[in-house]
Amino acid sequence: MTVLALEIATSWFAVSEIASDVDTDDVRRIPVPARGAWEQCRELLLEVAAGREVTALGIASAGPIDMAAGVVAPLDVPEWRSGFALVAAARAAFPSATVRLALDGVCLALGEQNLGTTKGVMDSLVMNVSDRVCGGVMVGGFVVVGRTGNAGHVGHVLVPGFDDRCDCGGRGCLEAVAGGTAALRWAQAQGWAGLTVPALVEAAVMGEEIPAAAMGRAGTALGRAIASVTALLDVDLVAIGGVLSEAGPALWKPLNEAVATHARLSFLSGLRVVQSTLGPISVLAGAGVLALTAPGD
Ligand SMILES: [Zn+2]
């Protein structure tokens, strides 16, 4: 039995074999190709399968997706932006495999619940704050999938006090402030000369003024969005992963202050907002959980 997990992220595709556990060392990644996205994705899957018959494949994709149709339309894969029938393509390439698709945030929630920070927790919000902001919601022990498979798009919750333009076409979305790509763009517009999101986070940790201010905006926006979402859903644990969660007090201080200011209802008094313990493999691990879960489980 060979079980594979595939993650379609914002700037790379990742594949790992799912044995009993997911180990970061076993993850193979390629940058999102400008052309031939599926062909290169299939090559990567075949390489990891190494000639063995694939019996199950779990796919986590950046949104939007159409879960019932098996179609993905991630904002950052140019060829697929208007929709690609990824499940049908995967079934044709691996005819013996059970193929399952879910949103990256849904897989994140599955990964954190089975292996990570929200294990044993019934009601939680999990977020990954990297280039973009993805999220997953668990209520009453069940991951919320939504009508079309897109529940958990917390990156597009509107944040009061911000009016930045978002790649979704709207304005003032959380991701337009707290997404790493957006924060980098903001810092560069303020005159910062760095080029990457990890460098921005590192500079903020070192106390550089503009990067720290960028993390400050991101933290405030995250805290405001978290206060809104937790009031709506009545969850008591929020776990945040992704590269921006590594920014230390520059991000976490304003984040916690915004939560303390806005999450004031009595049922939110025990709300905990913590850094994810599962780290960068959380979405891929969740795709593995998806692959191993029989329908109806
Ligand atoms: Zn948006």
Could you explain how this protein is built, in words?
The protein has 297 residues and is of the alpha/beta class. The protein has two domains: 2-106 and 282-292, 2-Layer Sandwich (Nucleotidyltransferase, domain 5); 119-277, 2-Layer Sandwich (Nucleotidyltransferase, domain 5), CATH 3.30.420.40. Helices cover 36% and strands 20% of the residues. The strands form three sheets. A five-stranded mixed beta sheet has the order 3-2-1-4-7, with helices on both faces. Strands 10-9-8-11-12 form a five-stranded mixed beta sheet, sandwiched between helices. Strand 5 and strand 6 form a beta hairpin. The longest helix has 25 residues, at 209-233. The protein is globular. The relative contact order is 0.16. The protein binds zinc ion. Zinc ion (ZN) is lined by residues 156, 166, 168, 170, 173, 175.
In short:
The chain has about 300 residues and is of the alpha/beta class. Helices cover about 35% and strands about 20% of the residues. It is built from nine helices and twelve strands.
Shape: globular
Stretches with pLDDT under 50, minimum 5 residues: none
Number of strands: 12
The helix count comes to 9
Q: Kindly report the spatial arrangement of strands forming the biggest sheet.
A: 3-2-1-4-7
| CATH topology name of the largest domain | Nucleotidyltransferase, domain 5
| Quaternary structure | single chain
| Largest β-sheet summary | 5 strands, mixed
**Overall residue-averaged pLDDT value:** 94
- Structural class computed from helices and strand pairing: alpha/beta
Report the end-to-end length measured between terminal Cα atoms.
19 Å
CA-based gyration radius = 19 Å
- What's the number of structural domains? 2
Bound molecules: zinc ion
Helix content: 25-40%
**Could you state the CATH homologous superfamily of the largest domain?**
ATPase, nucleotide binding domain
CATH class of the largest domain: Alpha Beta
Strand content: 15-25%
CATH architectural arrangement of the largest domain: 2-Layer Sandwich
